[in-house]
Amino acid sequence: xxxxxxxxxxxxxxxxxxxxxxxxxxxxxxxxxxxxxxxxxxxxxxxxxxxxxxxxxxxxxxxxxxxxxxxxxxxxxxxxxxx
Length: 83
Hints:
The protein is an alpha+beta fold and 83 residues long. The protein is 31% helix and 23% strand. The chain has a four-stranded mixed sheet. Helix 1 packs parallel to helix 2. It is globular, with a radius of gyration of 14 Å.
């Protein structure tokens, strides 16, 4: 399994800009976590109502958690979303 998802420093910069752009659209405080898994460490974002029911969202490889959460803004008013 590859540990890097970009092929050049420019590619990394574009990916980080994309991530930041979508994270700025999230209408909630966002917490970032790094969790261990059987395949290595994974990055998780958590947003929404702190004491709301938890909702786990799994996104595809071509989209990131910041994109998914920015699309789920209405749900963040009612749930604690983990992506």
